């Protein structure tokens, strides 16, 4: 019997030291991560962005779902067909986003593949350093965070894109994608 009050005291002192309280006056312990909790819905197939109408073919690659551009015309020359625009990795019941950003090129074309690659930047966080996330709204709707990026295109004398200035993330954008059936 003497052990029980001592054990309770140890738990209470430990909780106080870690900042865990039973009221709303202070910080609470973070929710346990459930990295192994894979969403029960497969993302494979074709999806359409609600606001722009852009199409994506979703494929599985390793532990990621990759969202491939269907039509280059929808992207004003910034992306090629079959190119990965963004990828999702399962994380804690939702997804981590890797946003593969490149500025639109119209009316100027990218001079070559090296210029296109030089202007491609990958982002996983917003301007505040918070991770970009995606979550299922239902089995056929997905909300995805993207970085709001500022990047200037550098042109050659022939008005072709030679490269891009260093990029800065200025915010976060959200898009809803709907599965096509």
What does this structure look like?
With 181 residues, the chain is mostly beta strands. 12% of the residues lie in helices and 40% in strands. It has helices at residues 3-17, 113-118; strands at 45-49, 55-61, 64-69, 84-91, 94-101, 121-123, 133-138, 141-150, 153-155, 161-164, 168-179. The chain has an 8-stranded antiparallel beta barrel. Strand 1 (45-49) and strand 2 form a beta hairpin. The longest helix is centred in the first third of the chain and has 15 residues, at 3-17. The model is unreliable at 3-36 (pLDDT under 50).
Please supply descriptive tags for the structure shown above.
mainly beta, disordered N terminus, 2 helices, 181 residues, eight-stranded antiparallel barrel
Short recap of the structure:
The chain is mainly beta. The chain is built from 2 helices and 11 strands.
The main β sheet shows up as:
8 strands, antiparallel, barrel
Q: How many helical elements?
A: 2
Which word captures the global form? Answer: globular
Strand composition percent: 35-45%
Give the fraction of residues assigned to helices.
10-25%
> Kindly state the mean pLDDT as a whole number?
83
Radius of gyration using CA atoms only:
22 Å
SS-based class: mainly beta
Widest sheet, order of strands: 1-2-3-4-5-7-8-11
First and last CA, distance: 64 Å
Low-pLDDT stretches are 3-36
Q: How would you spell out the order of helices and strands?
A: HEEEEEHEEEEEE
Total count of strands: 11
